[in-house]
Amino acid sequence: MYLTSTEYVTLTGRAIAEATIIRITMACKLLDSRIGNYPFENGYKIDSSNDTWYFYNNKEIKISQKQAVKLWVAQMITCLYLNNDMPESFNSIKLGRFSMTKGKDSNSLLPDKMNYVDTILISSGIINSKIDLDSKCNEVNMIWSVNIIH
């Protein structure tokens, strides 16, 4: 896991009881989902077992990225606690053809409270949106290209 309950208290100033194992695990898994295409091992995308963190493709994680991960996970634990371990709900009202939803970005999958730490996570460069093609995919694409030409 990417954060301890003691680190949670240090980063947020909130009660240690909020950082249950279930919330920490859930926040870490949500972070794994957020950071993109990295290999999994032991259920996580980042090896955080030592002082130096690595992705499971042996790419070292910078200190700024490690701090961004800890901030993001801590804030997500707070959001989970404040919403009874459920996704943030949006207040909305429908009147015939008209509807109104509370929240500045109703398309966002992240709670509003996560915007600041998510910006830090993005600027750290840890989010990987690249697609990794293996050699079999390249062979199929080459065969497909050759068949189109003929």
Report on the structure:
With 150 residues, this protein is mainly α. It has one domain. The chain is built from five helices and four strands, in the order ααββαββαα. A hairpin with a 6-residue loop joins strand 1 and strand 2. Helix 1 crosses helix 3 and helix 3 packs antiparallel against helix 4. About 6% of the residues have low confidence.
Describe this protein with a few key phrases.
150 residues, mainly alpha, two-stranded antiparallel ribbon, 5 helices, 8% strand, globular
SSE order and pairing:
Elements: H1 5-12, H2 21-35, E1 46-47, E2 54-55, H3 63-82, E3 92-95, E4 98-101, H4 115-123, H5 135-149
Summarize, please:
By secondary structure, the protein is mostly helical. The chain is built from five helices and four strands; from the N terminus they run ααββαββαα. The chain has helices at about 5-10, 20-35, 65-80, 115-125, 135-150; strands at about 45, 55, 90-95, 100.
